[in-house]
TrEMBL record:
Membrane spanning stretches: 23-40
Species assigned in the record: Gossypium hirsutum (Upland cotton)
Keywords noted in UniProt: Membrane, Transmembrane, Transmembrane helix
Protein name as it appears in the record: Sulfotransferase
Superkingdom of this protein's organism: Eukaryota
């Protein structure tokens, strides 16, 4: 009986399991169908997405029937056709655009130089964009800002119309350039950005300009407004009437430091396509501006600035302790800074 019972239970178990097995099979089949479904779906999705990208590419090709520019092969990476998000380049959509950055240091004539560039109908130099700290807080914010500028989406008083043929900014070496030089060089070389170095030869004059400018920031003799650049001889004369005292002890070390920063900047960015300018040469020789326009591939124009030079004539008229400065630099390699002068 016990055996029977046992057999029965065994049998019932077998019976039960044989009843169960189609259920398991069904589940397996169902699962298999599900997996197949998902697989087919992904393939479909992939086909749809590749379909849309080819469509997208076709669309772009159709939208950009710009003729191949007649240029040397090496120039190709530096020629761009930006497609601004905020407006249409309209009749100039096929005019190639060059990207540039003016690399300089404070009080080296870059403000004046930029007004000259912006006097050209086809050049937009958007100012010292990275003087705002958040924009240079890290490499990603720097690249985001550059992308916007070079896509012609940066709005400033220097923004021109849709016929901009060269777009850029003014960038001081101490505004993240030296700190992130590796990444920025890579960006410039992959995106085809050219560099315009603008330095000043007479670093003593630059120092006077810095001291006077920082005095003006507090004293504001021009009706209570701080002005780094002026547009009339009258204003220039007022600003130049302040004669700074130069610390003769720290003079040579600080001149040397500026020299070293300049050298380092040139070294870091020398692999970018570049041109080196000195403020004094541009002042003396206007054919330098023709060279810059050639570098930026824009039609040559006579360029004008309304800015007036603040510290004119001999340096001895602009330094309170001239005798100390003369003594400190006499016989050093910086001696020429005492005399070197130019008209205008
Ligand atoms: C360039 O400067 C001249 C003289 O100041 C001015 O008449 C002209 O409108 C300026 N052009 C541009 C594009 O700013
Ligand atoms: C970069 O800086 C911005 C603004 O300061 C910040 O929002 C962002 O998280 C930073 N990104 C990285 C990768 O550090
Ligand atoms: C320069 O701008 C003018 C109009 O402002 C436009 O007609 C001309 O095509 C532009 N030149 C280049 C080289 O983009
Ligand atoms: C101050 O403002 C007055 C009136 O606007 C003007 O006549 C005068 O030239 C200004 N002075 C300076 C130093 O800019
Ligand atoms: C010059 O600068 C040094 C270092 O900052 C300072 O110790 C010294 O007092 C300064 N000399 C004058 C005359 O201001
Ligand atoms: C001006 O610069 C050009 C090239 O930049 C040079 O060929 C020319 O001799 C210079 N002229 C003077 C007067 O220095
Ligand atoms: C410069 O140094 C030389 C000798 O080293 C001296 O004869 C001359 O008077 C000095 N000039 C000035 C302006 O100190």
């Amino acid at each position: 009986m016990a055996d029977d019972l046992c057999f029965f239970t065994k049998d019932s178990f077998i019976l039960k399991s044989s009843k169960k097995s189609p259920l398991v099979l069904r589940t397996v089949v169902l699962f298999f169908v599900m997996v197949c479904g998902v697989y087919i779906c992904t393939i479909c999705l992939k086909q749809i997405s590749t379909g849309s990208t080819t469509e997208f590419l076709n669309f772009r090709v159709v939208q950009k029937p710009c003729p191949e520019p007649n240029i040397e092969p090496w120039e190709i990476p530096y020629v761009h056709y930006p497609n601004p998000k905020t407006y249409s380049r309209a009749e100039c959509a096929c005019n190639p655009v060059q990207y540039f950055a003016i690399m300089s240091m404070q009080r080296s004539g870059s403000g004046w130089f930029e007004t000259l560039l912006n006097n050209h109908t086809n050049i937009s130099s958007n100012g010292e964009i990275f003087s705002v700290k958040v924009r240079r807080s890290n490499v990603s914010t720097i690249f985001e800002t550059l992308d916007k500028i070079y896509n012609l989406d940066w709005m400033s008083s220097a923004s021109k119309n849709e016929c901009t043929a060269a777009v850029g900014l003014k960038w001081m070496l101490n505004q993240g350039l030296m700190q992130h030089h590796k990444e920025i060089v890579e960006y410039f070389n992959t995106r085809g950005v050219s560099t315009i170095f603008l330095f000043r030869r007479n670093l003593l004059r630059r120092m006077i300009s810095i001291l006077a400018n920082s005095y003006d920031r507090d004293a504001k003799p021009l009706n209570g407004t701080h002005k780094s650049h002026v547009h009339s001889p009258h204003e220039a004369a007022i600003l130049a009437s302040y004669k700074p005292v130069v610390n003769a002890t720290t003079l040579i070390p600080s001149l040397r430091q500026v020299e070293e920063t300049t050298k380092k900047g040139l070294e870091y960015f020398k692999s970018t396509r570049h041109i080196i300018l000195y403020y004094e040469d541009v002042v003396k020789n206007h054919t330098k501006l023709a060279e810059v326009q050639e570098f930026l591939k824009v039609p040559k124009r006579e360029l004008k600035s309304r800015q007036v030079k603040i510290h004119k004539g001999s340096l001895s008229n602009h330094i309170q302790n001239w005798v100390d400065v003369e003594k400190a630099l006499n016989g050093t390699k910086y001696e020429s800074y005492l005399h070197a002068d130019y008209r205008k």
